[in-house]
């Protein structure tokens, strides 16, 4: 991984706004916010910003940081679950915005909250197989506030807006993608849906996301098994991992995994209190913050874990 950058709206919204919002509905969400680990988050407050615009800004920032131009990129992949448009692809707009070359491969991906992690895994493996792809630009961006349900704290008070972009580059150094493992249980496929009735029924009319209550903690034992298997098959132990970049959906879930493996606090990169839950990009905003603060250094082994609607989970090992 050559470089990583992030983008988020300027507007900061603190817990006080959401506490007052739900108090008017006769509900106290103070304990909920504590469980989720929220304090503030960045929320779009204008008509110009969206998943696409944030992704483009993040892409431009990471190219500047890497001292590269759009013409250096061989592959562009844009991960989002809240697309501004379904066609043309968001990657097409990024291609134009950065001045990428005509032979650059582009496409969008969607694995909900697991999307950017899954995309990095897919792109890494593809680059290993294709000698003509030397540099890839991966973007994860969601304007979640545009579809959050104002009567559901799980989305309205929890989700936030933000983007991350990174450049993967082939190198002779012993760094980069190591391995990943997946787990899918489709039993809860109808618990988190958008649009609820489907596009064929809504005819393009805007809706809010529907997030039905279910026990999300049920995924944690399986997540721990995934992590154990991933480490074992790569001859690593928990102690060999230098930093953990987990889904920022709920602080309580992170603490459960941390407790299970007895992971020291300094290895857990937590940013959910500052950024809220940015869905697809959240593990990589963790990575960004870890690098920027010096907690993640070149050569460090980083373990990612995240979960998407349905659910699907991915754990990934990466040497930064």
What brief labels describe this structure?
320 residues; alpha/beta; 13 strands; 4-stranded mixed β-sheet; Peroxisomal Thiolase, Chain A, domain 1; 5-stranded mixed β-sheet
Fold and architecture overview:
- The protein has 320 residues and is an alpha/beta fold.
- It has 2 domains: 3-169, Thiolase/Chalcone synthase (Peroxisomal Thiolase, Chain A, domain 1); 176-319, Peroxisomal Thiolase, Chain A, domain 1 (3-Layer(aba) Sandwich).
- It is built from 11 helices and 13 strands.
- The chain has helices at 15-23, 30-36, 51-66, 90-98, 115-129, 153-156, 199-202, 219-233, 251-261, 272-275, 282-292; strands at residues 3-7, 12-14, 40-42, 75-79, 105-109, 135-143, 161-169, 176-184, 192-193, 210-211, 243-246, 301-308, 312-319.
- Strand 12 and strand 13 form a beta hairpin.
- The termini are close together.
- Keywords: Acyltransferase, Transferase.
């Amino acid at each position: 991984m050559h470089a990583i950058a992030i983008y988020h709206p300027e507007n900061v919204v603190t817990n006080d706004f959401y506490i007052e919002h739900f108090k008017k509905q006769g509900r106290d969400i103070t304990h909920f916010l504590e469980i989720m680990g929220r304090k503030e988050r960045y929320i779009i407050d204008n008509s110009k910003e969206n998943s696409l615009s944030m992704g483009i800004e993040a892409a431009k920032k990471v190219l500047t940081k890497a001292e590269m131009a759009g013409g250096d990129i061989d592959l562009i992949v844009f991960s989002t679950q809240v697309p501004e448009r379904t066609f043309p692809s968001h990657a097409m707009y990024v291609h134009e915005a950065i001045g990428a070359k005509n032979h650059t491969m582009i496409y969008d991906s969607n694995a909900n909250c697991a999307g950017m992690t899954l995309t990095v895994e897919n792109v890494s493996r593809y680059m290993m197989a294709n000698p003509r792809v030397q540099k890839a630009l991966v973007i994860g961006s969601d304007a979640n506030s545009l579809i959050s349900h104002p009567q559901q704290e799980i989305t309205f008070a929890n989700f936030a807006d933000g983007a991350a972009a990174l450049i993967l580059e082939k190198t002779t150094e012993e760094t980069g993608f190591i391995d990943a493992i997946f787990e899918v249980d489709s039993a809860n496929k109808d618990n988190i849906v958008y649009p609820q009735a489907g596009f064929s029924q809504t005819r393009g009319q805007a809706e809010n996301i529907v997030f039905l209550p279910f026990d999300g903690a049920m995924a944690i034992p399986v997540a721990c098994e995934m992590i154990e298997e991933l480490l074992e098959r790569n001859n690593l132990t928990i102690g060999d991992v230098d930093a953990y970049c987990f889904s920022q959906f709920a602080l309580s879930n992170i603490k459960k995994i941390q407790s299970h493996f007895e992971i020291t606090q300094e290895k857990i990169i937590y940013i959910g209190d500052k950024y809220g839950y940015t869905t697809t990009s959240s593990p990589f905003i963790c990575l960004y913050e870890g690098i920027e603060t010096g907690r993640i250094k070149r050569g460090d082994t980083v373990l990612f874990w995240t979960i998407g609607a349905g659910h699907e989970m991915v754990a990934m090992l990466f040497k930064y």
